[in-house]
Amino acid sequence: MNFIIAIDGPAASGKTTTAKGVAKKLNITYLDTGAMYRAFAYYVLSNNIDPEDEDSINRIVENVNIELENVDGQIKVLLNKEDISDKIRNEKISQAASKVSTYQKVRKHLVKLQREVGEKYPLVAEGRDIGTVVFPKADLKIFFDCSVEERAKRRYKEYLEKGIDIDIEKLKKEIVERDNRDRSRKNAPLRMAEDAILIDTTNLSKEEQIDIVIQEAKKRKASL
Q: Domain residues of the chain, as ranges?
């Protein structure tokens, strides 16, 4: 297997920013598994399927093909060959993704797609079950944690930068609800792998988070 860095943690803990930064500095592939679940959720909502209707969702799983492409340093999310990168970054999709990701058949399908990427390239993968399920033999496993207050501030800032005004207390509530759902789901719940390194990102800058992961990676593979 190629050299793999697995970064897990709850929503808005810094996984995506760090994984992108690490992948860029090490010149390896960035695998955003969360975007794949968002893409699946987008397909579900676009076809007027209730995210709570597991039976209906199970029937359409095989119709969904999701690919991630690196285009000039930007990750493009392709759903059945259509670029939907700009359509999946909102709270409605986020909440739906959290729901559909609890279904075993959905997870099995997407994990298969994710492992295929790992067989082709060295990579940094981030999500909620990377070190425990997707790549249990990853060379480096990191688990990010962060206070709810700080995560809500980060998500709030992201929305403002997109011109979207949202109540920060509402964001806090949604983050807590998603945490509970991710940690309590039956299939591949959010948890830290026994051999993962725990990093509290509450008071860390983006640069500090990236540097910590890179230094840990170089301890395991000096040629990086």
A: 4-218
